Amino acid sequence: MKIIINSSSMVPIYEQIVDQITAQITSGNLKENDLLPSVRTLAKELKISALTVKKAYDSLEEKGFTVTVHGKGTYVAATNQERLREGQRCEVETELEKAIEKGRRYGLSNEQIRELFDLIMEDS
Asked: E strands within 20-119?
């Protein structure tokens, strides 16, 4: 399992871990019942605090992506792919709504916001 931490990012490290593991589960790189590295092992690999990894693992379990079996480890949970994608779609929708609201606060018209969106989509 490959995780890259960006120390200069404004996104907290535990969220970076959650996002990357979630992406690996969604893409099928991590499958149901795959064992994740132990908290200590991943913390050592990433050179970060074990508490940060624990927070990420707790968040993944809370969101239903993993299951922790005491004394055995943390495993990828069985996921409903449709439910998973819908949740991700909602997150993207929320972020887009925030961006639109910010554009309007800055005085941009709907057409200017659409032009920016189209421009960004072309560059991606």
From this structure: 66-69, 73-76
Digit-coded pLDDT (tens) for 1-20: 899 999 999 999 999 999 99
Whether the CB-CB separation of 4 and 12 falls below 8 Å is answered with: no
Alpha-carbon gap, residue 86 to 98, rounded angstroms: 19
For residues 76 and 33, the answer to whether their CB atoms sit within 8 Å is yes
Q: Is the dihedral of CA 67, 73, 74, 79 positive or negative?
A: negative
| Ranges of each domain in the chain | 13-76, 81-123
Fold of the domain built from segment(s) 13-76: Arc Repressor Mutant, subunit A (1.10.10)
Over the stretch 52-89, which tens digit does the pLDDT of each residue have? Answer: 999 999 999 998 899 999 999 999 998 766 777 777 88
